Amino acid sequence: MTLGVAKMATIEENLMSTYLDGNEFKKGIFLNMKKINEWAKDKVSEFIVKTDSEKAMVKMLSGGNIQKVVVAREFSNNPKFIVADQPTRGIDIGAAKFIHKKLIELRDKGSAVLLVSADLTEVMDLSDSLMVMYGGEIVAYFEDASQVDEMQLGRYMLGIERQTPEEIGRCVYE
Q1: Fewer CB near the terminus (10 Å): N or C of the chain?
Q2: Residue 108 lies in a domain
């Protein structure tokens, strides 16, 4: 509610906020409100935002539905790179699974996704590769996330273990 959305604006206005500089929704020098309305309705439907109308104020939505509005806005722009920082914190299981599905779809379309999460299950379920930080430093890198278990990962997260600089250096691509 602080950085992701304008709570006093409508769902439609929040969805459109990153598109206002482009020409996709303009009719001459004016906004094409009919096209904007149709697009917003489509996004509310596609991202399963539970609301009576795309004209509803964002502050009237549940936390999970607010997250879906943010995800709809950011993912609909076909980003090349997205940072998902705690994407499911504080939302219900259904909304979390939906957001996970959308993150995977985005990755499968070729976008790079940087997932930052304190939820170990989320990290293990969604990641192709893992980087572990402790004390502000990278302490481990796993090219294949399926080759590490939670116990092993936990030792790095707690600072008990640390990979060699050569092992960590494998995460650097030129």
Answers
A1: C
A2: no
